[in-house]
Amino acid sequence: MGKPSDESAHGASGEASFEPDDTPAGGWGSLRAVARAIRGQMAVARSAEALPRVNQPAGFDCPGCAWPDPRHTSSFEFCENGAKAVSWEATSKRATPEFFAAHTLAEMWEWNDHALEDAGRITHPMAYDPMQDRYVPVSWEEAATRIGTALRALPDPAMAEFYTSGRASNEAAFLYQLFVREYGCNNFPDCSNMCHEASSVGLPEAIGVGKGTVQLEDFEHADAVFCIGHNPGTNHPRMLSTLREVSLRGAPIVVLNPMPERGLERFTSPQDPAEMLTGRSVRIASTYFKPRIGGDVAVLKGMMKWLLDADADDLAAGGEGLLDRAFIEEHTRGFQALADDLSATSWSSIERKSGLTREEIAAAAGIYAKAERVILCYGMGITQHRHGTQNVQQLMNLLLLRGNIGRPGAGICPLRGHSNVQGDRTVGITEKPDAALLDGIRRTYGFEPPAAHGHDAVAAIKAIAGGRSKALLSLGGNLAVAMPDPQATFAALRTLDLAVHIATKTNRSHLIPARQMFLLPCLGRTELDVQASGPQSVTVEDSMSMVHASQGRLKPASPQLRSEPAIVAMLARATLPASKVDWEGMVADYDRIRDGIESVFPIFAGYNTKIREPGGFHLENAAALRRWNTPDGKARFLVAPGLDEDPASGPDLLTLATVRSHDQYNTTIYGLDDRYRGIKGGRDVLFVNPADLAALGLAADAYVDVEAHREDGLPTGRVIRRLKAVAFDIARGSVAMYYPEGNTLIGLDDHDPRSGTPGYKSVPVRLSASVDRHDDAA
Ligand SMILES: Nc1nc2c(c(=O)[nH]1)N[C@H]1C(S)=C(S)[C@@H](COP(=O)(O)OP(=O)(O)OC[C@H]3O[C@@H](n4cnc5c(=O)[nH]c(N)nc54)[C@H](O)[C@@H]3O)O[C@H]1N2
Ligand SMILES: Nc1nc2c(c(=O)[nH]1)N[C@H]1C(S)=C(S)[C@@H](COP(=O)(O)OP(=O)(O)OC[C@H]3O[C@@H](n4cnc5c(=O)[nH]c(N)nc54)[C@H](O)[C@@H]3O)O[C@H]1N2
Ligand SMILES: [Mo]
């Protein structure tokens, strides 16, 4: 491809080839991939030291995903993508001051995302020098002073944005929100705004809490598990061990996913010597349905419609019915409105919208109805839609109909993304603080925290674009690349007066010059964190509300690195000379940060004692105890109008989802392969159903241009050129390409109005054959 512009800012990728093979997930392929990843980072010694400590009682929490650890084991659980994440952080490559002296930002902008991070760990605090267009070394003290001065100079604290990516520990995130609130605003754009915000908004309206209700043990008791819109083989690989056990017990696993995902089909466990030696594998999905992208609400309404009809038939035949009437009566509101909506919805519209037949939907519903205890798992395939919030609520409706919540083996299981994205929320990263949070801060720290709602991620970019915000601090992440519409997002960020990036490695967000810009290198999860009172642990909360300690042991990548809590405290002190908070005291001993968390959030009672137990402790979840923290104390059925989880688009348009490859961690690109999907050596591919290719007169392997369209069918002018069309067994009418490249097709306004979650999985597009152009042919 040509040189990266703002429209296609991810740089060169190779020429992709497509060679499908049907090897099960896991197995020797996983071990080989790990060996390659470790060698590629020249991190053999550091990885050999680090890997055995992943997710161990005295080790560190894997930065790979938020799936919980089996509580009673101490054996190292092998995970290919966890190992990639660890060796990427434990790399022996370094981005030193000499490295930054050798490259201008304009030059680095032309590199691809892989090359930028592959420069290695940042070793020294750096400040941007606009005269040279380079980062130059700066002392920590000078950086803090300049940042504090710039923040104090803003006419209004609400003119600064404070982004968090979900790797930050509870301790770092808590200090960060305390700093920002004492400074005077609630502008907390967060990676979860792009991820599970639809759950955080949708679930509380239904059941009073915004988190999953199951624990790992529940999978031992479930009679059926549904996996909807998530890809565990790649994104939460340790879940495959759990699903394998479910399958071996003979409990059905039903998948709803427009793409065939290998990890949901068959798995050879690297933990199982017999499977590894014989090449045997375990089937994961007992039934694999491929609805079209955006067809989930139709499938779910179809399942509920079948259930109500079957229930009526059963009652008429003298049976007890299929619904849990006692539960519905005692614990819920809104059943009749749901039943009315379902009877008014026709099977023909359900079939058309879902892409599944009535028989297929009945089969899925039949499995649901037969199982005494059901867990529904879901990921980005549900949340990243224009009506993601209502999608989540339809899942909950289905569970409530048979009382599948608040008893062993049943409940809802959102697969959270980053390893501590859930914990960050629990300890106060939210743009809409509630009264309890504000009271807790006031009581504990004696200052008046601001109550006015702040910005989420989309609002933050818009405020910057509109000149209403002039500063951006990022506690990790790669905001510019993770957000939709790189053209608008990059242009907005170029207007900043101050940008501060607390990071481990360089990424594209760090290359967008602000008038003053700083790169502050921090310790990673794997590294030893020593403060005045000695070595420190941090704590994280997984997808199932288990909080546990994490302690790195590796020698830090550079003696200059500071921990995230120490950096946040330093910025707070430099910005707030009259602060009421004992920042030094808390950083000297993280137990004191946890005491503060416990004081602000009583749910953490006994924090410092409990995290010293191996495996940590569970944060109480009221809904799992059938206590509903809703206004009337009941769980609610919430009706979604119609069947469109995205604005309806023209009949001749396809719907595009952006997905992760097996060789990436969000915007971090480890390599150009996507092994399970048969892609090698490149990322510029588009997965298309062969029948759709034929209908468009396109050959497999043809180069296609993809243009995004509006709901009314008009083109948006957002185009990605020269993707290689891969004939793939994806649902008809649906196409997929990789994230973040696909962000060029998505507008900043293309989000769920209720949760702000961008519609990353629902772009109406039209395909056309690429015309060869000179600059592309090179
Ligand atoms: N190795 C690795 N691990 C990761 C990450 C990573 O990038 N790499 N990212 C982390 C983060 S932050 C997150 S949020 C999670 C993401 O984990 P996932 O939720 O698994 O993320 P995606 O790759 O976006 O894929 C979602 C799945 O949704 C399907 N899908 C797309 N559209 C639809 C639809 O309309 N309906 C249905 N039912 N399915 C659909 C796709 O085919 C794909 O299988 O993983 C976390 N873990
Ligand atoms: N099109 C499309 N866009 C999407 C998505 C999608 O599915 N499709 N998914 C969305 C989702 S679910 C999410 S969560 C966001 C992700 O958005 P982010 O969380 O902002 O992005 P990451 O790629 O995870 O951030 C990677 C960077 O984090 C820094 N980093 C790594 N480890 C550490 C650490 O320990 N400390 C600190 N301080 N920094 C560290 C490194 O500098 C690295 O470059 O993207 C969203 N964007
Ligand atoms: Mo995420």
TrEMBL record:
Residues 121-501 form the Molybdopterin oxidoreductase domain. It comes from the Bacteria. It holds the Pfam family Molybdopterin. Its cofactor is Mo-bis(molybdopterin guanine dinucleotide); [4Fe-4S] cluster. Residues 654-764 form the Molybdopterin dinucleotide-binding domain. Keywords: 4Fe-4S, Iron, Iron-sulfur, Metal-binding, Molybdenum, Oxidoreductase. Belongs to the prokaryotic molybdopterin-containing oxidoreductase family. NCBIfam families: Fdhalpha-like. This is CbbBc protein.
